[in-house]
Amino acid sequence: MTDAGTPTGPVTRASVTRIGAATALTALCVYIMLYLAARDLEPAGFSVFGVFWGAFGLVTGATSGLLQEATREVRSTRHTAFVPGPRIHPLHVAALVGIVAAVVITATAPMWSSHVFAESQWLSVVLLAVGLAGFCMHATLLGMLAGVDGWTQYGSLMVTDAAIRLAVSAASFVVGWGLAGYLWATVAGAVAWLIMLIVSPVTRTTARQLTPGTMWTFLRGAAHSIAAAGAGAILVVGFAVLLKATSGDLGTTGGVVILAVTLTRAPLLVPLTAMQGNLIAYFVDQRTHRLRALVAPAVVVLSIGMLGVLAAGVFGPWLLRAGFGADYVASRALLAWLTAAAITIALLTLTGAATVAAALHRAYSLGWVSATVASTGLLLLPLTLETRTVVALLCGPLVGMAVHLAALSRPAASVTNH
Fold it and tell me: What keywords were assigned to this record (predicted)?
């Protein structure tokens, strides 16, 4: 591995270790932020914050489509000969996408904001729009760094984002800013990419990288990735929004369920989300062995996940009460099943990374959209909130995995998915 911004070889154990360390720091910051919000706002208030957190995670999760396409485009140049023709600047495309997205959110807000945000409605809309524009740049820069093996800078950008969020959360907790403080904290990391460009010469060099093709060819591939990432974001970080849309007033029970979902999935999904660049780079390098390349990371996910199920069932209820207060009560079975559901979403994330690395854009987006549609339908079942949540998160991703694996099992020469 090198930090010089040039490709040097396949994804290495050292790169995974560096991103793993950055992920651990990022996860710690997120856990502390959620802890402060839960202690400061109580369950009912936390459910309001949780919906905004989910909404922001949903829209910024869609920007990971830019990360994926930037990684694939930059990484693929090492496997193909130079082809004369137009070149584009991925960050310029990201800026255009961010501006358009922010305008769309602001212009359409009167039609949906009152149904999503129970308090601080217009502050939430403005923060959502501005934060999304910043994260388009953030995600694209992450993808470019992954494409050139700039793993030190990749991890630094992740940690800078999380540290800024935590700093604003801590300030809000100390001064008693209330809900508004945590809304600001949620989006504060959107400036991290700019800070990295200012302080890191390697990041500036990487940011100037050009990729083959036109803006429209990049956007065509990115559009499928963004659609898939948006659908995935509903399940991974925007689930609170989906839960509210299908359940109405969430109340205290909703606050407990949202926190339980967030905590049980974080040990698996935070690292996997952070390592999207590593995974796509790895699968691009292993493009001739698509299904075989899935085995090792899938075994790791299953092993860690099953340990998590056991830990959640044995220690989960006590840890929830001890960490967040007596109002947060959840059963052993609920926490264990939610952790099992996190395994299926983690495996869907793996198959998705392999699919987009193979440039199977349509199959990639169809898999995630199918999983989200299936989960949404399952949330409409006449069951308790807790049971519906488990069934939706456990079973919906299986549909998406089937789509991805079917596409990956087809001979490479027979697939034209651009």
Answer: Cell membrane, Membrane, Transmembrane, Transmembrane helix
Q: Mark residue 120 as left, alpha or beta (left: phi above 0; alpha: psi -120 to 50; beta: remaining).
A: left
Report the number of distinct structural domains present in the chain.
1
Q: What is the pLDDT of residue 396?
A: 92
DSSP 87: E
Inside any domain, residue 129:
yes
Element (H, E) at 418: none
Q: How many helices (H) and strands (E) are present in the chain, helices listed first?
A: 16, 2
Q: Which residues of the chain have pLDDT under 70?
A: 1-16, 78-85, 118, 238, 248-251, 412-418
Question: Could you tell me the two tokens for 66?
Answer: 């830019």
Residue 8 within any structural domain of the chain: no
Distance CA 47, CA 257 (A): 9
**pLDDT per position as a tens digit, 255-296:** 788 888 888 887 888 788 777 777 887 887 777 777 888 998
Examine residue 390 and state whether it is found in any structural domain, yes or no.
yes
Tokens 């990749």 sit at which residue?
154
CA–CA gap between residue 314 and residue 323 (Å, rounded): 15
| Element at 212 (helix H, strand E) | strand 211-212
Q: In whole angstroms, what is the distance from residue 417 CA to residue 249 CA?
A: 41
Which residues form the domain of 195? 13-414
What pLDDT is recorded for position 379? 87
The gap from C-alpha 17 to its chain's centroid, in whole angstroms, comes to 20
Asked whether residue 343 is assigned to any structural domain, the reply reads: yes
